[in-house]
Amino acid sequence: MEFRKKRRDVVGLDITPLVDVVFLLLIFFMLSTTFIVSPGIRINLPKAQAEAVKRESREVRIKIDAQGNYFFGDRRASADDLADRFRQAARANRDTLVVIEADEATAHRFVVEVMDRAKTAGLNRLAIATRPGR
Fold first, then answer.
1. SS3 per-residue string spanning 52-121
2. pTM for the full model?
């Protein structure tokens, strides 16, 4: 007695489209992250030989451009807005560090005004950001 062998079809999954989609997603995310890194405010920090200040979890960063415009984050702010933010930060934690990122062409009076407003609000820890001068 002779039995017939059943012929089985080889079932396979074509993963070529899946690989294409994965590569396209990878390229998309790589390109989109480069746009996030570049900030919108151009600040040319002055050079210094001192060691850089380490980032802290409790810090407020204020940027001042060459024209004397203040920025809190990426938004433009007035001196009164900064005073309000400093008071809020002081209420939350009096040990908050205020980091001033001023352009090297900024007039000294704008930096002093930010420092004065921070001290008036009760924040005594101040730092001025620089870039390595080596």
1. CCCCCCCEEEEEECCCCCEEECCEEECHHHHHHHHHHHHHHCCCCEEEEEECCCCCHHHHHHHHHHHHHH
2. 0.60
- Residue found under tokens 């209420």: 91
Q: How far apart are CA 51 and CA 63, in angstroms?
A: 20
* Phi and psi based region of residue 68 (left: phi greater than 0; alpha: psi -120 to 50; beta: remaining): left
SS3 127: strand
Give residue 50's identity as a one-letter amino acid code. Answer: A
Domain 47-132: state its class.
alpha beta
Query: Structural domain boundaries of the chain?
Result: 47-132
Residue 123 has φ and ψ, to the nearest 5°, of -95, 115
Q: What is the pLDDT of residues 41-91, one digit of tens each?
A: 666 666 766 666 566 668 888 999 989 899 987 789 988 888 999 999 899
